[in-house]
Amino acid sequence: MTRPFDDVLVPDGDEARKWAEQELSDPRYADATPTWFDLMARDIGRFLADLFSSDNGANVGPSALIIVGIIVFGALVAALIIWGRPRRPSAVRRPSGGLLGADDDRSAAQLRADAERSARDGDWDEATVLRYRALARGLLERDLIDPAPGATAQAIAREVAAVFAAEAAAARAAAVSFDDVRYLRHPATAESYAQLAATDDRLAAARPELVSA
User: pLDDT truncated to tens, each residue of the chain (213 aa)?
Assistant: First the structure.
């Protein structure tokens, strides 16, 4: 009668070693191998644990604190050498496309040029919309305002007022001109566009003011 384990292959010593080497060559074992940093952290942890254990507690004194301080300082120096100085998080820049309800990636200079072109053609509505976008884009390029995504013309005007208090009324009037044309379909005029363009020119040349919280 055949016993249950007669068909089980039992390798000899060489065959077993070969199987073990093949199994350990699997990448998943390499991924689990501790790095030099892991080993160093483990050794330091063990050293500190032994240093302040109950058996050595009575012997811990100023010398132990000096040793610990040297270890911590050395670890910091090593980290700076390996990884460099910690970098300050770079400012998050908003996508340049979306602005006042339009996916427009033109710069402030380009928007002003296009607005002037529309004004020369007598298209005051288009000139007004483009010029207010130029006003907002110029302040964004200078990092003077940080409107939320989808901010309205009036919201941008409020941010302008926080930076340029003297231009608060002019900024609100410029926003009204934009809203009148863009949403209320009120036609712009040469005079209203000239006022908006003058406000944009002043803001482009102005320096931000220190405004109290």
Answer: 555 545 545 555 566 666 666 666 665 555 556 666 667 667 766 766 665 565 555 555 556 656 766 777 777 767 666 655 544 444 444 444 568 877 788 999 999 999 999 999 999 999 999 999 999 999 999 999 998 888 899 999 999 999 999 999 999 999 999 999 999 999 999 999 999 999 999 999 998 865 443
Domain assignment of residue 78, given as a range: 13-83
**146 within domain boundaries:** yes
What's the predicted TM-score (pTM) here? 0.55
| In a shared domain, residues 138 and 79 | no
Residue 186 and residue 102 share a domain: yes
The count of domains in the chain is 2
CA distance 75 to 71: 6
User: Is 31 within the bounds of a domain?
Assistant: yes
Find the farthest-apart pair of alpha carbons in the chain and give their distance in angstroms, rounded: 111
